[in-house]
Design brief:
single chain; 307 residues; two-stranded parallel sheet; 10 helices; 36% helix
Length: 307
Amino acid sequence: MGTGSDMSLGALRRAGLILALLLWTAAVAAAGEFSGERAMHWIRAQTELGPRVPGTPGHRALQELILAHADSLGLRATVLRHVETSPLTGEEMPLAQIVVSAGPDGGDRLWFGAHYDTRAHADRDPERGARTEPIAGANDGASGTAVLLHLMELLAAAPPAVGVDLLFFDGEDQGRSGELRSYCLGSAWLAPRRQDFGNPLAGGDPIGLVLVDMVADLDPSIPMEGYSLRYAGNWTRAVFQRAAELGLDVFQPWEGRAVYDDHVPFLEAGVPSVDLIDFDYPDWHTRADDLDAVGPRGPGQVGTLLL
């Protein structure tokens, strides 16, 4: 447990980090193109907050950063809070799904999503003694979130003709190994409640959802994820066709492995959903998922596709 002075210093550091990052916004947005290097800045910013496990200071600081960023850009942001039981500890776990909206209200919309929490246990680490430690999550958590944070800047600078909702999912990575339904707790909570009164997603389902997860591998390659292709084939092929038209060579037009991710609850709810994920990542769920294991090429191409 930290002292009062420790907590104040931590809060000041977080505030300084948020301010420094927000000062970049105007210059970057003016360029009008998605920058993989800018996405890397957002990855670094998240890892500097420490582990983003629900209920930790780093997790709360990242929520503050996302909301402060949206507010600085004049974008609408809504926080949907709920409490779940952690599959790893059995204790209550506070979760917050964040929805940031750009462009016009109503009409056709696009949903882009990423999870912002990081795993509490490095359960695949080669050192057995380290498998109860949290991970940095530079790729698994920070990379997709970084794409959305940079995309917010560009959507604010040039509002899209079609409404766009950015879904920051919480509680994706707190499950028990081998128990698929213990993962993706935030999206599983949100998908059936998307039309509830007061929910910013209410009013009709989107053209489709594009989920972004683990896209910053140093040698990125993103195939058509198995569940996406099986249950939303037309939407998945349309997204990959657009990538081909743009000459984005990290996207591969063949079926990859099926990955239980935040798109699955939305597929089950009837929302066309595609998961852009490079699951061939040797540092997954290890302490090596840090800044040395990630690069700008994948986020740059994924962000260009979304934009």
